[in-house]
Fold this protein.
Amino acid sequence: MRSLKNSFKRHVLAGLVLATLSFAGQAQTASPAPNTTGPGAAGVDNALLYAVAWKQTAAEYRALYYQGFNVARMHVQAALAKRQPGDKPLAVVTDVDDTVLHALNYWGHLVNQKKDFFDDAIWDQWIPENKVTAAPGAAEFLKFCADNKVEIFYVTSRDQGEKTYEYAMGHLRHLGFPYADDKHLTVLRDTSNKEKRQDEIMTTYNVAVFLGDNLNDFRRKYYIKGDVDKRLELMDADREKFGRDYVIFPNPTDGHWMAAIFGESEPPPTDANREKLKKAAARSAWQGK
């Protein structure tokens, strides 16, 4: 009887050892779980909070838009004053999202959903809802241009499938923006490179000013991936153009500035990327005493 008990124990023990070794082997070969813990249950540790709160509430944010469109208007007025018979017609070339259109309730939704990075799937769901608003000063500036026969060319980069162009046109018309037609709206679905279309416009129009919220809205050379210093260097080299040829609007939540940090404009919400964001935020940091 004792012998049977000992034999049974040995079999059980052997089975446990084999199971443990098998589990260990599986643990070594299994793919690691995605490191995407994200904000906590209350969402108050969301990395987006400062940026989105600023966009939602800061008078300074709105003032920068008014300032930008005031500067753009001065350039259009100067171009009108200098026009001579036979000159090419005047135009303004503008980006759409975060330049003449705002998506504040999209960002508010991300915060409520405890998302701390741009979410492309949610963006694609939000676009058809027509919840866009006009950027502060945009409608007045565009109307001034239209009243003075200065054409507006909208050049944007979006991709929501086959209805992408329809959605973009719907946004412009929903807000009553002038020149919302096929001649004046360009939607790039497979690239963010706007330079070719801008160059085409400049062959037949005298462009008074370019508007955008990303440097890449002006020239493709600024689209630098994974190199913050190089992008800063290129921008500094063109410092005379800002406020003159280019008017740039503030956008702290997304854009091509992120590609310089992460290597892509819409990085996934991983803990590794959260560490990169923290490192970028502490790029210059006092060490204390």
